[in-house]
Amino acid sequence: DAKTTQPTSMDCAEGRAANLPCNHSTISGNEYVYWYRQIHSQGPQYIIHGLKNNETNEMASLIITEDRKSSTLILPHATLRDTAVYYCIVRVRAAGNKLTFGGGTRVLVKP
Amino acid sequence: KAGVTQTPRYLIKTRGQQVTLSCSPISGHRSVSWYQQTPGQGLQFLFEYFSETQRNKGNFPGRFSGRQFSNSRSEMNVSTLELGDSALYLCASSPFPGTINTGELFFGEGSRLTVL
What we know:
The structure holds two protein chains of two kinds.
Chain A: E1 9-13, E2 18-23, E3 31-38, E4 45-50, E5 55-56, E6 61-64, E7 70-75, E8 84-92, E9 105-110
Parallel strand pairs in A: 1-9
Antiparallel strand pairs in A: 2-7, 3-4, 3-8, 5-6, 6-7, 8-9
Chain B: E1 5-7, E2 10-13, E3 19-24, E4 31-38, E5 42-50, E6 53-57, E7 64-68, E8 74-78, E9 87-94, E10 106-107, E11 111-115
Parallel strand pairs in B: 2-11
Antiparallel strand pairs in B: 1-3, 3-8, 4-5, 4-9, 5-6, 7-8, 9-10, 9-11
């Protein structure tokens, strides 16, 4: 699986959009980008995933650059409950249910 | 719909003992994966089961084992506990092995094991 690089931490103001970057410069053509988050003392929660097109769901938007070497997770209106560690994961389709988690980005949403 | 249920939530053991953790997946989900989370190593994949068969295994010693029952419930066992086994053990379920369509795993809240 491709290696990902994320900032260690970032702050965000409540009500504002939070833009979480992820670099995956060695991504292969058959690898997807997944985002999970882990709120303190809870199990990780799936947010969104994509291959090359931008994706949006009720939680967030995923913007993948045309060369697929980086992506951005956008939380449109951050709330205090969005404070969590966010993990960007890149993996092939046939990797089973094995996810390789890196260090993630610790996001603190401030009032 | 009930989520993934893990028991016990907290437990304390001493070195050399063994422990068994249980995971009940979401109803209808047939795949169960286990992860270990420690402050030093982060989240690491242990193994994955589907239809009572281990489909994938992480890089852990043989002291870590698991199994899945016909009702998809799963257990993991750690024998001869070491201090370094203190961790949050997370179980995740999905409808099929390698949910390539959704990439979505549903995690439980974990079992926190402390080894003294």
